[in-house]
Amino acid sequence: MKTIRVGGVPEHFNLPIHLAKEAGFFERAEINLEWQDFGGGTGAMTQALREDTCDICILLTEGIIKDIINGNPSKIISGYVKSPLIWGIHTAANGEDIAKESIFKEKIAISRKGSGSHLMPIVNALMEGESIEEDQFVEIKNIDGGLQSLANKESSIFYWEKYTTKPYVTAGKLNRIGEFISPWPCFMIAATNNLIKKHPDLVDIFLRIVHRSCEAFMRNPDAPKMVSDRYNIELKDANYWFHSTEWTTNSWVSDKTLTSVVFALKEASIIEDDAKTDDLIWQREP
Length: 286
Known about the structure:
Layout: E1 2-8, H1 15-22, H2 25-28, E2 31-37, H3 42-50, E3 56-60, H4 61-69, E4 74-81, E5 86-92, E6 108-110, H5 116-127, E7 137-139, H6 143-151, E8 157-161, H7 162-170, E9 174-181, E10 187-192, H8 193-198, H9 200-219, H10 223-231, H11 235-242, H12 255-267
Parallel strand pairs: 1-2, 1-3, 6-7, 6-8
Antiparallel strand pairs: 3-10, 4-10, 5-8, 5-9
Helix pairs in contact: 1-9, 4-12, 10-11
């Protein structure tokens, strides 16, 4: 049995993979799937792929594209969630009122450089004709760090997935002042070049199991209830989230998605204008 180290955020998007593991699908395929939670998000996962402490990660699209372009020895092996991510834009619950048009002038809490919470404010500002300076970002590691940073007034703005932060908003620990919808599919699956080279057949088996589990999850009428119970999300919100989210059921990745993300990253000066973008996707041997 071959061990594959798989990482993702401890959030509801990855429930289909957990359900497949709990059902024994990976084990029956001779895969020992070791799951790692990354509370630090995409930035922490790109680092894990670089350091070869994780074999496969489920990451935000813009984050993994940016990091592969910047030398991460990995490839995108499949799409994962094809619908966009809805980012909540948050302030401290008892902080000063901040107008939405002023957020790009404030200190912004991010999990780490290269994470979605770092890249999305930049893209949001770009689409609004604004810009953000690098010294406006405050690294906070994870959502708990974000809450503390806002409460201590070390930062004023915090972008994070809206349904994950909804319990904190409801409990009066965060104030949501707006939303930003990512302009492309939100999650991709990436694997290290080392795993792809040594075990390409195993990568394909892993993907087939994930895709089948995603398809079954989307057809399951009890899926919102499972999300609500496991992730402390109100059932009403879990229903809204579930019916606005679509997972991929094959490995195809749209060229348009790639070109749109690369364009935005270049426009926001996150990658160089002459950055090479022709080695992002795993090209299977004929």
